[in-house]
Amino acid sequence: MIRRGGLWKNLTQRFGCGPVLGPPPEGAKRIWIHAVSVGEVLAVGPLLEALSRQSAIELHLTTTTTTGYAVGLQRYAKLGVGMGYFPLDFWPFSVRAWKRIRPDLMVLTESELWPEHLRQARIRGVPVVLVNARISDRSLRRLRKIRWLVRALIPPFRAITAASEIDAARLREIGLPSESIEAVGNLKLDVAVAPPVDACATASLREELGVPDGLLLMGSSTWPGEEVALVRALRRIRTDGVNCRLLIVPRHAERRQEIREVLGAAGVRFHMRTAGTAPESVDVCVADTTGEMVRLLPLADLVFVGRSLPPNEGGQTPVESAALGRPILFGPRMTNFRAIAEGLVATGAARLVEDADDLAEAASSLMRNAETRDRMALAGLSWHRANKGALDRVVRILMREMGRP
Fold this sequence. Notes:
alpha/beta; Rossmann fold; 2 domains; 17 helices
């Protein structure tokens, strides 16, 4: 948080000293939704929009990271959503936050299982719903060893909506009650994508980034080591006679100095997005900003999804790329998005690459074959249309729980 900036602003909220919320309007109920970081804050966007249309509901959103907080303020203030930081999960801080927010329903996302927070909900008789619940391979290995502790510390949820059947089975395995779990699909599949951008606006944005012409390879939410692999892929593509440039969007913008050093050592011309408009065309643009991913994705001819090449593990979401009809490459470590990755590969929307050499080979092959890229793009669009719908199911469950005594 120190590296990202904004640590000291609203620091007291992390100790439960957020604003004291008055009672909601007469006849309305307050829902407290917690989404840990940028990805989760964006994922709950459609849910917040759907719930904000209900006149009898008041929404309060908390997040853990400064970047998540900034994105939440930017995107959801117009919906009337209150914003704050989630308190540290320690008794005095949690008690203080609960006394100030006073929700009628608590909604946690993905795998946010905070024992003290859940205990405060139980003490106050406030129902808790876990939405978009998922358990990664790594978390499953750890939680298997302490199933007895999970059962002891985590009180029953009123409802749990799992992101997939795999996640539903894992939630049962670690000891959460089967009767509360329902596999409804992944909310991230219902995330709003950018509207079509006209050719003039696209050309202007590419000029601004310093990548005005040629095909564009994009590294989406990259982690350490993957920038080196992408530069190698760029060189291979160019060696094979294709005019191509590279756009890197790192998962953590505070890595900008590290990436500068990588690109400097590689001897490529590069531009950092935070420096403003590029003064000239470059080989590589680094979008070291927050919340621009969906805006930049339509520029890409091919997308590599980060945190998927060893030694990185977990993967970042490929959903927006598929929803925008972009052919996708990712490494073998997409363990946080296993069902999604398998579905994309099975439908032909994505290809799995084993390592940096395989990435360079696959990227060059696809950049030389527009017909194959078009087929992958159409497959991604079809996959996305076929798998939407979790939002409606989650909203129905939350409205049901709001109406229960």
